[in-house]
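Minutes, project check-in
Item: structure for the 139-residue chain
Input as provided by the requester:
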Amino acid sequence: MFKASHTLIAKLSGLQDKSKSKRIFGKWLKSQAWLFYKQRRKIADKLQNARILGISFHTFRHWKATMQYHKTKDILHVMRLLGHKNINNTLIYTQLMSFSDDDYVSKVAQNVQEVCQLVIAGFEYLIDMNGVKIFRKRK
């Protein structure tokens, strides 16, 4: 859920008027879901891992909620992110997991080029110590 400007709402309303159905993105979303299903099946077959078939868009929502809570430790932030009005719904999505410190890979960057490479690779900045920057990434 997000705030939309009046301009965006006007543009979306214009799209709805031009289409014959009441939905703006109806057919497009169905085709994207079908493509996701086919791709998921192909990856599961290639890797011979049937657990991949259990991944859905809803799974990503649970993962995002859990990671945001772990990162911020702020359940109200996660509640606003998910667009919930009731904290109990957010608690369903947020699995309270224990992450141990050995679940990280640490890297050191000494120049701007190395920093850029680490950020692109998904590492998060921790601290600047003795002229080098230390980054970490979850395993």
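Outcome recorded: The chain has three domains: 7-17+24-55, 56-97, 102-138.
No further action items on this chain.
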